[in-house]
């Protein structure tokens, strides 16, 4: 069986086209690998958890005695320490958990410091 005369050119064209398609797809087309997809899903889940739990933490913190004074103290603390202050207060520890999440603590502190006074 004899192959057509331009077979070699066709195969090279197909190979270069496949490589170009992969480069364009991963660079600008939004394609991702399975590992990147898993990382993106984990980050989205963590962001959703923080978005739900931080307002609960802030409400619990505001429910304590002299909360306005404690929020003022929290505002005076450096932005690096605010999450630690909330963690130590225990308000970021959700029922059923043994440890508090540092992302929730930081988001809770930011909510408390940045929300308008009521």
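Q: What amino acid sequence fits the structure above?
A:
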């Amino acid at each position: 069986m004899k192959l057509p005369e331009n077979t070699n050119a066709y195969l090279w064209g197909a190979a270069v086209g496949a490589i170009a398609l992969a480069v364009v797809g991963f660079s600008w087309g939004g394609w991702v690998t399975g590992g990147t997809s898993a990382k993106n899903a984990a980050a989205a889940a963590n962001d959703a958890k923080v978005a739900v739990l931080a307002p609960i933490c802030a409400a619990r913190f505001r429910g304590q005695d002299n909360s306005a004074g404690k929020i003022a103290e929290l505002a005076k603390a450096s932005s690096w320490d605010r999450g630690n202050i909330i963690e130590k207060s225990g308000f970021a520890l959700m029922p059923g958990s043994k440890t508090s999440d540092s992302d929730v603590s930081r988001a809770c502190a930011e909510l408390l410091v940045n929300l308008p006074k009521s």
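Q: And what stands out in the fold?
A: The helical segments are 7-27, 34-62, 67-76, 82-89, 102-114.
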